[in-house]
User: Fold DegT/DnrJ/EryC1/StrS family aminotransferase from Paenibacillus aurantiacus.
Amino acid sequence: MGILFSAPQVEYDIIREEWLETVAQIGRQGVFVGGTWVSKFESAFASRLGVSEAIGVGNGTDALFLALKALGIGPGDEVITAANTFVATVSAIHHTGAAPVLVDCNDEYLMELDAVRAAVTSRTKAVIPVHLYGQVIDLDDWKAWSEATGIAMIEDCAQAAGASRSGQAAGSWGVMGCFSFYPDKNLGALGDGGAIVSNSPELAARLKKLRNHGGELRYQHDLPGFNSRLDPLQASALHCKLAYLDEWNAHRRQAAGWYRSHLADIAELTLPGHVEPDDTSHVFHLYVVRVGGGRREELKKHLQKKGILTAVQYPVPVHLLPAYAHLGYGLGSFPQAERYAGEILSLPMHAALQEQDVVSIGSEIKSFFAAAKVT
Ligand SMILES: Cc1ncc(COP(=O)(O)O)c(C=O)c1O
Assistant:
């Protein structure tokens, strides 16, 4: 057997009995949309993040889209985000009718406030910092800047559930924080799911309407809304998994420590920075290295042959995707994002990864580069 890239099936095994009991309960109640499990998970998630509101929605893309809609963002507006994010951050902006404005990343793959400031125009209404790979951007200065300029900050926390910096959870710095519960996220449902968190009861009230055809009560439609609800079977699975989130995130950090010790002497790799085991500002949703010498694809294939699954998040920056050619960027617009897209490789990372797996991965990578030196 090889080494899994992510392990939602292992997580499922852990919660299976408890979850099946909730499924039976939901079945007996006959409430398959909304209901007590959705509100139970929403309250538990809000309290875990230290915010007053959590609103379950259909997926992480909708969370971002509905957050922008709740602020009234639309045609004529601009929203700034990262060139090296998953495409969904940008498609959520696009579908509001606003124009996505992209910025480059630093060498930890994160957006910087200076780059955001330089991209602001009179049309800028919001910025979406992306906590990519599970790293929380230090948003202290961003928050002050957002309050001073009136440019709303919505955090994309799709990859950073349970992460925090200085005791403050990812998702609680901006006016809203948006989460994806896609199954292999570090808090993953058993299908699609998402949530928006906030400390604003007004925004929460609007979001509850927007996700449900524009009204909270049946046939009362106060706003033109959408249909994007977290379903109770997903909510109860998430409720079961939430109890393990901190333990699983800590395991991921420990695994990152193993990678650091077993890959440290491979000169061709650039590893993520060191993170202390109790430093919750990184939850290692992904463990991303850079492969030098233009050998990423070869290494990826070599590992695959050995049963070690890897991925590239993401091989093409958003500004170079055909879907967003109309934004008018081109090759050279975001040099860091472009360079890293050709070098990054996500190694296996999940709550069941063992040190022996990391040792095997390390020795396969070493033999790959050693063979290259001989030939
Ligand atoms: C950074 C980022 N933003 C947004 C999303 C969209 O989430 P979803 O797939 O749940 O729509 C994802 C995950 O897929 C993501 O990784």
